[in-house]
Amino acid sequence: MRGDTGFPWADAESDFLRARRRQVLSRLAAWLRRVPDDVNIMLPFDEVVTALGRTGEKRLGLQVIRLDTIVGSVDRTRDFDRRFRPTSTRVRERWQRLALAERRGESIPPIDVYRVGELHFVKDGHHRVSVAHALRRKTIDAYVTEVLTRIDAHGIRFRGDLIVKDLRRIFLERVPLPGQARAAVVFGDPWNYAELGESVEAWGFRLMQDERRFLDRVTVAERWYVEEYQPVVRMLHQADLIGHRTEAEAYLWVVCERYRLIRTHRWDDEIISALRARR
């Protein structure tokens, strides 16, 4: 084991000091590179499940999980950074006791985690995770509870990513698209989800006025996607107006431009020509 002197207590002290030094150096490197503040911050479990929309949970029992999938905590985000390096000496005594037990080969209880997608959040066992990282373990035993959510956790890396998930969840509650349609509508700027939600609801209101009957959100979402979104996206491809945008971003752009230029709800060659001229 790296740094093994043959004196377990001294080695455990060295393990802690090494972990603290790495945490300080990581903060310094992040400051020098001017990376976002949330890069080394542990993801807070409650904020993640709120952004994704919690629908339930189920116990999966004892499993072996990879340490690199543990990215957050239920309530200990201040004591450790994203890689579970201690952020102060406050946890030193307990940390070193666990490191000593590990070095002596003593039995260490499994940790307790929540699973959201492929990510894990520690409910109990933060020090054990930190020590396992410091001793370069790859896996750890854990009691796993899977949390079910309305939208998936794919793409979450940092705390700043949660606003994208949160606004996308709200959009899908307002515009409940089916599977393939749901996957097709993607934005880089999270605020675009709010703008598109307003646009779809306005489209649905006009549709109900035209047909003189009430339509629920599911019906409006399905009809908007088939009758409005897909035809417009096809025209945008034909007119070479997608560019570097996603299809949804291009759609939202031309919707705004359509009202600014023509102030009409129709789509025809005149509108496309006007939009192409303003590209």
TrEMBL record:
Protein name (Swiss-Prot/TrEMBL): Chromosome partitioning protein ParB
